[in-house]
Amino acid sequence: MPDLSPVHRDFFAGGAGDERTLRANEAAFDRIRVVPRVLRATGDRDLRITLFGTEVAAPVLVAPTAFHRLAHPDGEVATARGTAAAGSLMVVSMAATAPVEDIAATDCPLWFQLYPQPDAAFTASVVGRAEAAGVRALVVTVDSPVFAHRPRDVRNGFLDLPAGMVCENLRDGTGRVRSIAMDDRLGWDVVDRLRAITGLPIVLKGILHPADAELAVEHGVSGLIVSNHGGRQLDGAIATIDALPAVVKAVGGRLPVLLDGGVRRGVDVLVALALGATAVLVGRPVVWALAAGGAAGVRDALDGLMVGLDAALALAGARTPAELTADLVAAA
Ligand SMILES: Cc1cc2nc3c(=O)[nH]c(=O)nc-3n(C[C@H](O)[C@H](O)[C@H](O)COP(=O)(O)O)c2cc1C
Ligand SMILES: CCCCC(=O)C(=O)O
Question: pTM of the full predicted structure?
């Protein structure tokens, strides 16, 4: 991978604490097997789904990840080009190193990820800017009241972006770049406050407990992402594919439930969908693809997952994501 320093590679790859949850996300997929159906004439397969009015080629989206210019000089703009070429949708991190307007200029469908800031006026200005750029949903990350201990970054002394690289969407009115604050005073009222300042669909990212899924429905959000932040926040948190069934049950079809964490192959997508997810998002695989091959790399990585999902659907006897049901999976 050209230009990816060991320190930055560790930032992308690493997790919190002893990285048990990081490992658990992938390991949990490895404990689930498919029980395929046969002779179901699956020739007319169609992977497309529609989320909040946006059609995507397949239920495989790009998770919000920080600092893409550490992986590639064109950063998030290249990621968006590759995502658009694959027919998918990108969630732009609040910690993006390119302006949301430049990312939107690629015509890639975008959602914007937000860490609500203690300064409500500043939060509103960031949301307004993203909305003006044309993002189609707001993804509010709720699993990060504090920033977790990440031993690799501490060991490497990774604290700051290199000179000339900043979180471009955190400039305030004076052009000064603010740093992202984690806020351990956030409560459910933040959803109501965001609702008051934007008409965008609000998606909560980082739900693991079914009681929180129920509260999210009561607070009128438009969707949920079952996520443990790729094992980067609470080390020891449940693997996402293990958390999914209870969340899906609590939601009871009232909202789309998405999942991220450890999705590495088409059949992982199939398993998540069979257990009730509407779509999945991928984090690190997109970063590695960006580092290795820029926009074309991102396109190829997403295409690879979609081709793998298409083959898995055929081999499991399904034609569409909607046909995937829980009877198609079993414990390994
Ligand atoms: C390098 C990196 C940076 C991330 N930055 C953010 C972020 O800025 N905001 C956020 O909500 N999640 C962030 N995440 C979490 C991802 O959105 C996602 O939950 C996770 O990467 C999914 O797991 P996976 O990497 O196993 O696919 C980040 C993850 C990684 C690996
Ligand atoms: C302040 C940047 C936060 C990025 C992030 O969420 C992560 O590295 O997981």
Answer: 0.98
